[in-house]
Design brief:
The complex is a heterodimer.
Chain A (H helix, E strand, L loop, with lengths): L3 E4 L5 E3 L1 E3 L7 E5 L3 E2 L6 H17 L3 E3 L22 H5 L5 E10 L2 E10 L4 E10 L4 H17 L8 E6 L6 E6 L6 E2 L7 E6 L5 E9 L2 E8 L6 E2 L10 E6 L5 E8 L2 E8 L6 E2 L7 E6 L5 E6 L6 E6 L6 E2 L7 E6 L6 E7 L2 E7 L6 E5 L5 E6 L5 E9 L1 E8 L6 E2 L7 E6 L5
Parallel strand pairs in A: 4-6, 4-7, 5-7
Antiparallel strand pairs in A: 1-2, 7-8, 8-9, 10-11, 10-33, 11-12, 13-14, 14-15, 15-16, 17-18, 18-19, 19-20, 21-22, 22-23, 23-24, 25-26, 26-27, 27-28, 29-30, 30-31, 31-32
Chain B lengths: L1 H15 L14 E4 L66 H16 L23 E2 L7 H17 L13 E7 L10 E4 L4 H14 L9 E7 L6
Antiparallel strand pairs in B: 3-4, 3-5
The chains are: A mainly beta, B alpha+beta.
Chain lengths: 430, 239
């Protein structure tokens, strides 16, 4: 390590102290019970809300809670307090880097939840916000609030208020499910007792394309929707002859990339969601599958066995300019492009199992992310580009896990029986 | 045909609905009142984020989150308290048949074909490539003055103390960030005034984390002499 020598104002030349991180990865946050300013205060609701906020903060990997027993300041935010200042020494003494306080006000016309988050070391109020809602879905507001607190400290919002679509055979058949990113609130999006796979979120998070064998026992693409899109089969105007293996929403337009077989050829196409504008992007006898859009919608990473073994390639969205991306490993597949555009996560086969690696789109940097002796597959990026969901058989059956981009903070997010696979992390819907 | 047209319109609507959030009047509204700008961004204008690696191009803008608020789950109303999935009605009026094994396998077979047959042995994993670090303007490397024994000891003490206190959340550790700070110390190691950032990392939250860390570490171990002492904070293992 070279010494950085810096001239001080006094004219002396001094070598800089070069500090690299130790093991401290999380800010310690003291979360108060929010004051309840309602006509009929509800202590249970306040406690439940606080627990949900704490859980979402800890899920972020950015915060850990300060235990209530350590509090020197009040456990509950005092009603009507002047929030222009805070008694910071009370909090720094107990090792709290951050303090979260707020109020919940329930009125007949709606609920208002206000909060402030403080950097107690420098005694600065970082964010003050108020949410208004007309329903009683406090769980979602708690996650949203926690994501905003994460943003105040690291500059990108947390992802607890996002969802992951995935495939599970827990009911006997492979069906599409949706859950919150932390694994809570899992529910079925399909129940057709057929074979369903490869969910792909719309850019708005209001619909999912998936592959299903429920029609003619052959794979075709379907839409599950809670927005304006009509649920049901897509691309029916293309007929029933050519099986469609996988569809992936384009990030920026009413189009998808899809894998379709034409007799002996399996190729990647782009097509409007209504089946218009079909365009074949790959040619030849090789199998071309697993399209993954770049976040700007200009390029598509995909997998091809054109050299004899599956490798990852990148082409322009019109099929031009194909370049090979991966050269290490004899079997690379399932690319997933990070929303910030910097990385492509993919799986690579090592000793008959799969590991997950990261490569940049120019192919310069290629590093392992998950290397467990069991199989780790199907990486999918969180919308803040800081976490990746994947499936792993490390417990026997396949479960879904999330891990931070630097390989830390591994968390299992499914616990139901059966195999849970093919995660697809949805966008922010705020 | 009519059905197809409906799908067409519906699908277009689906993707184009984003800007028209008002038409989607959601059953529940979260309105956000931003009372003040996000924290540290304000006082210190961030420099453009450094390019993460030598080769990769400037990151394209992340997809913009669109304004849709939609509590419903894809095909049924959102359950109040996370019930385990309940089979819904079979959604189709279309022809519905149980898939037979063979059909199910065709996809698996396709994948198996892909997976199966590479004759090449799997090569050893590549060595991770280190990111090029941005050279430090104003800092020269290794010229002249080696550290005195006293300085060397103090450096080690400061590094040990900062490692135990400075919080670097996951994610920052994989970015090529580097914050240069000048700290004024008295003879006892008390930090006088706020540490001055002499070179920003490009990420104001990372810079803020450095200042928070120094604030928490105050007082530092007593320096060889009172005065200004330069420090550089950077993640060790940038991808």
């Amino acid at each position: 390590m070279g010494l950085a020598v810096v001239a001080t104002a006094a004219g002396a030349e001094r070598a800089a102290v070069i500090v690299t991180p130790g093991g401290q990865q999380t800010y310690r946050i003291a979360v108060q019970r929010f004051a309840d300013d309602s006509a009929t205060p509800d202590a249970r609701l306040v406690d439940d809300f606080r627990e949900r906020v704490l859980a979402a903060l800890e899920f972020s990997g950015v915060f850990q809670r300060v235990d209530d027993a350590a509090f020197l300041g009040p456990l509950t935010t005092p009603l009507g307090r002047d929030d222009s200042s805070l008694d910071c020494p009370n909090w720094t003494q107990i090792g709290a880097d951050a303090v979260l306080e707020g109020e919940i006000t329930r009125r007949p016309e709606g609920v208002s939840i206000a909060f402030r988050v403080w950097d107690s070391s420098r005694c600065r109020r970082l964010v003050r916000r108020r949410y208004q809602q007309t329903n009683t879905d406090f769980a979602r507001t708690a996650r949203r609030l926690a994501d905003d607190v994460v943003e105040a400290f690291i500059g990108v919002p947390g992802v607890s208020d996002t969802e992951i679509a995935y495939v599970s055979d827990r009911g006997g058949n492979k069906e599409i499910y949706v859950m919150s990113a932390d694994g809570s609130g899992s529910r079925a999006a399909t129940a057709n007792r057929s074979l369903n796979n490869f969910p792909s979120w719309s850019p708005q998070g209001d619909a999912i394309i998936y592959t299903s064998y429920r029609y003619l026992n052959r794979p075709f693409l379907f839409l599950s929707s809670r927005g304006k899109g009509r649920p049901g089969r897509l691309l029916s105007r293309l007929g029933d002859e050519k099986p469609q293996y996988r569809g992936v929403f384009a990030p920026d337009r009413a189009e998808m990339a899809m894998v379709m077989s034409d007799g002996s050829d399996t190729d990647i196409y782009t097509v409007g969601l209504d089946g218009s504008g079909l365009r074949r992007l790959t040619q030849g006898r090789a199998i071309d599958v697993s399209p993954a859009w770049s976040p700007d919608g200009r390029r598509i990473a995909f997998v091809s066995d054109r050299t004899g073994a599956p490798q990852i390639y990148i082409m322009n969205a019109d099929g031009s300019g194909t370049t090979r991306l991966t050269y290490d490993g004899s079997y690379n597949t399932n690319p997933s492009w990070s929303p910030d555009g910097l990385w492509i996560a993919y799986e690579t086969r090592v000793n008959g199992q799969f590991d997950i690696w990261l490569i940049d789109p120019e192919g310069v940097t290629n590093v392992p992310l998950v290397t467990h002796p069991r199989s780790d597959e199907a990486p999918s990026w969180a919308p803040n580009s800081r976490m990746i969901a994947f499936s792993s058989t490390r417990r026997g059956l396949a479960d879904l896990y999330v891990i931070d981009r630097d390989g830390s903070n591994l968390r299992r997010v499914t616990s139901a029986a059966g195999n849970n696979t093919s995660p697809n992390w949805g966008p922010y819907t705020r | 045909m009519a059905w197809s047209a409906l799908v067409h319109l519906g699908a277009l609507g689906l993707v184009m609905a984003a800007p028209s959030a008002s038409r989607d009047a959601p059953p529940r509204v979260i309105s956000v009142e931003l009372v003040e700008p996000p924290p540290s961004a304000a006082p210190q204008k961030p420099a453009p984020a450094p390019v993460a690696k030598p080769a990769p191009p400037k990151p394209p803008p992340p997809p913009k989150p669109k304004q849709t608020v939609l509590p419903e789950n894809p095909t049924q109303p959102k359950p109040k308290a996370k019930p385990e999935p309940k089979p819904e009605k079979p959604p189709e009026k279309e022809i519905f048949e149980e898939p037979d094994e063979k059909q199910e396998k065709s996809l698996e077979e396709l994948m198996a074909e892909l997976r199966g047959d590479s004759a090449e042995p799997a090569p050893a994993p590549a060595e991770p490539v280190e990111t090029a670090r941005v050279p430090s303007p104003g800092a020269t490397s290794g010229t002249g003055d080696p550290l005195s024994a006293e300085e060397r000891t103090w450096h080690a003490q400061v590094i040990r103390r900062m490692k135990g206190i400075w919080v670097v959340p996951p994610g920052f550790r994989t970015q090529p960030l580097e914050t240069h700070v000048m700290v004024r110390l008295d003879a006892a190691g008390n930090i006088l005034g706020e540490p001055q950032i002499t070179r920003r990392s490009g990420n104001p939250w990372f810079d803020d984390g450095v200042i928070i860390g120094l604030t928490k570490a105050n007082p530092l171990p007593p320096p060889p002499e009172a005065g200004e002492w330069p420090m550089v904070f950077k993640p060790e293992d940038s991808l």
